[in-house]
Specification:
alpha/beta, seven-stranded mixed sheet, 7 helices, 20% helix
Amino acid sequence: MRLTVLGASGAFPTAEHACSGFLLSYGGRNVVVDLGYGTFQRLLQHVPVESVDAVVITHRHPDHCADLNPLLRARAMSPQRPSRLDIHAPAGALDAVLALDRSGMLDDAYRLHEMGDRFEIGPFDVAIRWLPHWVPNPGVRISAGGHTVAYTGDTGPSPLIAELARDADLLVAEASFAYLVPDEAAEFASSALQAGQDAARAGVGKLLLTHLWPGSDPATFAAAARENFSGEIGVATEPSAAVVTLGAHE
């Protein structure tokens, strides 16, 4: 299984970095997890629009779902006329994005599934845990070919993060802040320091920090996570973390 970082900037994109988005590939199948601002063009650098088999959206904030619109437009208007794209999201999370175009324009481009506690997308087995955020936000655990990736979306502190990531090969963890989360966000956002704690509790193989506040120094975030986690740590905004391959299958 291979994970490709499409973007990892929190809240809004920068000239260098798109917002949250990840491409998971295994056995010739491709699943996109989150499609924030700027991720669609990054996606096209890796796969054509008709080769995306499904999309999983964690929540309705636009830095996690805004670029679903150009993906659906491209499929709806493509001369190849690909089959409907399966989209899994919390109930109502995509109402605003899907309402951007005239009524009915994109209807033949997708099938929308309300996210259940467990579901399958081809060879991918997906399990979720509902994590604390300002809006409903499921963390997702995706397994294929004997390997597992856990992804928190956006989350405040919760014991369910360690449960979600238990023994995963890779934990992709929101870290909007390095050490201290401001009081007004403390229940709904996380730090790299906390991500390191969760990774250690879960016994993951590797930690990948994502959703850094724009302009943050990746080295500071990695150092914060290192205080609690002794395993391999990457920062998704760094080129060295752009592609993570788990096992021999791609």
